[in-house]
Structure of Maleylacetoacetate isomerase:
Amino acid sequence: MRMIGNWRSAAAFRVRIALNLKGLPFEETFIDLDAGDQHAPGFRAINPQGAVPAFFDGDGPALTQSLAILDYLEETHPEPALLPREPKARARARSLAQAVACDSHPLYVPRVRHYLTDDLGLPREAMQAWLRHWFGTGLATLEARLTGEPGTGRYCQGDAVSHADLCLVSLWVGTAIFGVDTAPYPTVRRIAEDCLSQDAFARAHPTRQPGAPA
Amino acid sequence: MRMIGNWRSAAAFRVRIALNLKGLPFEETFIDLDAGDQHAPGFRAINPQGAVPAFFDGDGPALTQSLAILDYLEETHPEPALLPREPKARARARSLAQAVACDSHPLYVPRVRHYLTDDLGLPREAMQAWLRHWFGTGLATLEARLTGEPGTGRYCQGDAVSHADLCLVSLWVGTAIFGVDTAPYPTVRRIAEDCLSQDAFARAHPTRQPGAPA
């Protein structure tokens, strides 16, 4: 197995955690998103969307979109399971994962930040406010759901790690990068810190990948 | 089965199509997103994220996030299948669905449009440009992937309808609402028109739901 990623990519981080948890060896190549490597013709031929990660399992075209890759790994390497068996619990774990991966993260990726400043001419401070707003909205949604919905346990869904936790952690690590006040999100913090104390998560951490600032 | 939705919601549309294709009877209650019904305490108690659809199958809390609901329906009512069996084909169908549901749609939902105009003070024309840009980016991504990737057939993935087509159609119907030039997206058009000619899709169409303008 092989992946093209980037040290900072939250999406690549999620896949890296799953591979570690399932004990699957993989190689990762890192491209430079700030230099625009994702828009180079060579990479566009791999993923026309120009986004990481691009994942390869043997022959064939790249698999893309982190949640689709997580489901692929779950279906091809079911143990240890990263989704509950019971359908409604499974749906909740996926829903929490999507609250991060669909409704929060896509709002502050590089292409969106560039469009706001370069195309709409938004001042840098307004772009920063945008970023903090949607980042905070993602955290607030998780906190509200984790405290308000039955189903939360040691982890997002019950007492076993699931895709929801991988997404939660991929959001959480941004709080340090973006300097976000984490006080309003104690449940998110509790789960994130629990996960990040585990080797499979810690080894996958963005700051431990090639290309990360020292 | 029961759903709280809105005539215009692309996410509710996707779930409605799946229920029709699987022949599952359901009741849908429609709330008014323009009036802010999704932020009322009663609805927030159902979905703290304040978003539709909220889906109920018997007892228990609502299931949320359209893709999680689609997977739930697939797991609990496998026939007719709306995902291929082969893992890589399945991953590609999911990836195309997520290119719409994660990377395009969340960028122009009401909460984002309101933040741009009400909080960042963006002129209405700039907000419209934003909307057209990300809507067009979603269509362009689909067109590039459908023409460039092996796997495309009569539908997005091979010759059977999958979650990818449900998401493609949920994007496509916005072209009429937003007055978008569809000429650059002939493959998206071909698949969308094929799907929309089928009863299960046609009955689910936003303009045929209560609350839609005449």
